[in-house]
């Protein structure tokens, strides 16, 4: 992780509650064309990206060992931080199989060898989404995102519950459909640690999330 | 920067570790609910308990295991000498036992 990325995440976390109007250089979103209104457009983000937005996403989470995986359902809330960056708050649920996959090894240490799609999780995340204008076209806007997340994890047949903390980094593509609706696809890597019950204790977390959905301007 | 890379590598490696034993074969157990199939209870024969699967032939067991003519047919790890059973812990050695279905004998890891 580069210093600039760490700094980027830090700025986002500390400024996540700031209001868009607090940032003087933000260009107010407008449905009018520059020619109509005389207002300068923001060249660093999609023209239809409002200062607030929400998204509903569906996808897959790939886990393993003690990282939950399965069907991913997520909701996002976006809040403009600068002409290029949006706060990205998310709530997500992961639905995988509930099969028992934990055991005691010969040293009497509890281990779990869950597959890619096993367990349940409820996740919360705060991240920053930065658009990449140098790679964008009028319709398609690539972005990168980085942030922090926490999750409540459950593997029912093993009777194991845990809480996890992770760093998330990812990238995606936003495609404008109308002035108020866009399609978004993104992929994230999650890396972190978790603390689990029933003798499992501390465990590393390594997962991948791939999702797509619709984004709505507020 | 170096610390971040090392932390990422450490978490990644830890997340990918696997064990020589599993719920299917070799894990410690006190009840069958701790295993995929059944638990050979802790005792002199299977110190610490031993998760196994029912079998009729060697083909019913994983590739490094054989089907024994005991307990109605159960899988156990194959071996060639006692050190090959050290991963199962104290009390395990390499013993010759009858294979299931009169298919000769097999050298397997077990207790007494």
Question: How is the secondary structure organized here?
Answer:
The complex is a heterodimer of chains A (218) and B (112).
Chain A: H1 3-15, H2 34-37, E1 52-62, E2 70-80, E3 85-95, E4 102-104, E5 110-112, E6 120-131, E7 140-155, E8 160-176, E9 181-196, E10 201-217
Antiparallel strand pairs in A: 1-2, 1-10, 2-3, 3-6, 4-5, 6-7, 7-8, 8-9, 9-10
Chain B: H1 2-16, E1 38-40, E2 50-52, E3 65-68, E4 74-77, E5 93-98, E6 105-110
Antiparallel strand pairs in B: 1-2, 3-4, 5-6
The greatest interface between two protein chains, and residues involved on each side, is:
A-B, 25 and 29 residues
Beta-strand percent range of chain B: 15-25%
Given as residue ranges, the uncertain stretches of chain A (5+ residues, pLDDT < 50) are 1-39
Strand content of chain A: over 45%
What is the string of helix and strand elements of chain B? Answer: HEEEEEE
Number of helices of chain B: 1
Mean pLDDT across every amino acid position of chain B: 89
- Topology, number of strands of chain B: 6
- Rg from alpha-carbon coordinates of chain B: 17 Å
Taken from the alpha-carbon principal axes, the silhouette of chain A is: elongated
What coarse outline of chain B follows from CA principal-axis ratios? elongated
Largest sheet of chain A: 8 strands, antiparallel, barrel
Query: Helix- and strand-based class of chain B?
Result: alpha+beta
> Roughly what percent helix of chain B?
10-25%
Query: What is the string of SSEs of chain A from the N terminus onward?
Result: HHEEEEEEEEEE
- Total helical elements of chain A: 2
Q: What is the oligomer described by this structure?
A: heterodimer
Measure the end-to-end span of chain B: 54 Å
């Amino acid at each position: 992780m580069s210093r600039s990325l760490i700094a980027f995440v830090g700025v986002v976390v500390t400024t996540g509650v700031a209001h868009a109007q607090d940032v003087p250089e933000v260009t107010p979103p407008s449905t009018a064309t520059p020619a109509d209104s005389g207002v300068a457009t923001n060249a660093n983000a999609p023209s239809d990206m409002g200062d607030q937005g929400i998204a509903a996403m569906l996808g897959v989470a790939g886990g393993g060992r003690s990282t939950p995986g399965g069907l991913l359902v997520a909701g996002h809330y976006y809040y403009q931080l600068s002409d290029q960056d949006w706060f990205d708050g998310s709530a997500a649920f992961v639905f995988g199989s509930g099969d028992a996959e934990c055991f005691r090894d010969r040293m009497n240490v509890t281990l779990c060898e869950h597959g890619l799609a096993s367990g349940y999780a409820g996740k919360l995340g705060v991240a920053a989404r930065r658009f990449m204008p140098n790679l964008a076209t009028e319709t398609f806007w690539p972005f990168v995102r980085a942030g922090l997340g926490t999750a409540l994890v459950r593997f029912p047949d093993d009777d194991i519950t845990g809480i996890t903390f992770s760093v998330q980094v990812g990238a995606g593509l936003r495609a404008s459909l109308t002035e108020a609706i866009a399609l978004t696809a993104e992929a994230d890597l999650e890396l972190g640690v978790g603390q689990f019950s029933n003798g499992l204790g501390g465990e590393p977390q390594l997962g991948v999330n791939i999702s797509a959905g619709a984004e709505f301007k507020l | 920067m170096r610390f971040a890379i090392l932390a990422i590598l450490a978490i990644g490696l830890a997340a990918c570790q696997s064990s020589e034993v599993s719920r299917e074969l070799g894990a410690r157990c006190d009840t069958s609910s701790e295993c995929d199939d059944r638990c050979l209870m802790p005792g002199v024969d299977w110190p610490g308990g031993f998760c196994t699967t029912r079998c009729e032939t060697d083909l019913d067991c994983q590739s490094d295991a054989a089907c024994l003519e005991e307990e109605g047919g159960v899988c156990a790890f194959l071996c060639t000498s006692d050190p090959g059973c050290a991963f199962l812990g104290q009390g395990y050695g390499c013993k010759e036992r009858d294979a299931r279905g009169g298919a000769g004998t097999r050298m397997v890891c077990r207790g007494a």
